[in-house]
Amino acid sequence: MLTYQTSQPMEGGIAIVGIGGAGAHILQCFAGSSANNVRLYTLSPDERVGFTCGSNVEYVPLGSGMSHGLSCGGDPTVGARAARESRAELQAMLKDARLLVMVAGLGGGTGSGVTPVLAQM
What we know:
The protein has 121 residues and is α/β, with parallel strands linked by helices. Helix content is 38%, strand content 20%. Strand 2 (38-44), helix 2 and strand 3 (57-61) form a beta-alpha-beta unit. Helix 4 (76-85) crosses helix 6.
């Protein structure tokens, strides 16, 4: 289990975001640790990914209007469209973050489509 230690508390803190199924699985390694300035999020259009989140991880569904809770099907353009559709939710999530760490796999469409859109924000 990883532990976080900071010498000084940061205003806003750190947001660690697991994007897609691979990002969500990797993020579960961080979910057991506690730090008052680290927030954990999982982003995916696939609702099944949201069900696997731990209690310390907040699930943010992407593109609910277009994906209807299903995955990107290996198409990064679908992931990018889902992220653009959920722009308001993503901006609210990042509002107070001073540092963003993105964890994603690049094989299923969500990671390769969402990561560039989120980085541009």
